[in-house]
Amino acid sequence: MRLTLMEAITRRRLVSARYNGGVITLAPHLLFERHGDLFVSALNMGKSWREDEEPRLGQFKLAGLTDPQLSAESFDPLPSFDGTAPRPDDTLILAL
Q: Region entry Disordered: which residue ranges (predicted)?
């Protein structure tokens, strides 16, 4: 999973994976470590946003993601993305 997400971040490619019993498609922006666990900050491409709500990155624990599939489809980073870890005590591993 980690290597697939690192490639997706580097190449700006979408990734689909199983999460909580369903399949989600993510646009991964950042990989980081928090308290010894790996997380990815990614835009969930299947999430419905309210009209007045700006899409934002969600944080997904890698231990909860399975069966990753790297897509040939690329994505553009969110305009608000700044490339820093979400919390001061998080360790940044890779960002767009």
A: 71-90
